[in-house]
Amino acid sequence: MTRAAAAGPENAGEALLRRVGERYAAAQTLSAKFRQEIPLQNVGIVRKASGNVFFGRPLKMRWDYKGPEAQLFLADGEHFYFRPAGSPQVIRRKVDEKGLGGKIPLLLLFGKGEIGKMFRVDAAELRKGGEETLLRLSPRGDGAPEVRRIDLVVGAGDALIREVHLFDRLGGENHLYLTDVTINPSLPAGLFRFRKPAGVSVVDG
Fold first, then answer.
1. With helix as H, strand as E and coil as C, how does the chain read?
2. How many domains does the chain have?
3. d(Cα 205, Cα 199) in Å, to the nearest integer?
4. pLDDT digits (tens, 9 = 90+) for 79-108
5. CATH assignment at residue 101
């Protein structure tokens, strides 16, 4: 393992994180397949989900979940819309760029390449014979107060994020795995438009 403080003004881990920020800051759209695992504390159960995710600028995203526990998670540029599986209500919130510090996928796609200003690289570890690098990050200042640590697994050649492992200060974990990542795909114009399902109410929260 290579410690981030081991070399001059910008070591290899910091340089890779900068490349990641620049790569995503230049992207206008992105699509990927995702798999998510969230261990439930003190229960011994891991909540799992999978599906497809799409991002677009400015401030747009859509998570399409597979299976009977499908839920809605969409941002149209002004509001987030979230509907838990089976719920008769959709929760609507204003999109806030300042609140993206702990939400790495959103920060990268919605942000302006500033991830290196918000997080320091504590360690970098080569994996799979150098094909991937694990970057261990911790927050700088109070930009992401709820985050204890984030581990990013990044492709060494393409600087694309393959895994995000988030550890919060309350002991919670969120593990996200991305495959088939495509930068700047052509996406349907109405993909990020919210359409209220019949019989469902929208509440601000």
1. CEEHHHCCCCCHHHHHHHHHHHHHHCCCEEEEEEEEEEEECCCCEEEEEEEEEEEECCCEEEEEECCCCCCEEEEECCEEEEECCCCCEEEEEECCHHHCCCCHHHHHHHCCCCHHHHEEEEEEEEEHHHCEEEEEEEECCCCCCCEEEEEEEEECCCCCEEEEEEEECCCCEEEEEEEEEEECCCCCCCCCCCCCCCCCEEEEC
2. 1
3. 19
4. 999 998 888 999 999 987 665 544 666 666
5. 2.50.20.10
**Degrees (nearest 5) of the Cα angle 199, 200, 201?**
125
CA 39 vs CA 42, 47, 74, 84, 122: distances in Å: 9, 6, 23, 18, 24
Residue range of the domain that includes 175: 2-204
* Residues 153-184 pLDDT 10s: 999 899 999 999 999 999 999 999 999 999 99
Amino acid at 13: G
Residues 118, 17 contacting (CB under 8 angstroms): no
At residue 115, what are phi and psi to the nearest 5 degrees? -60, -35
Prediction pTM value = 0.87
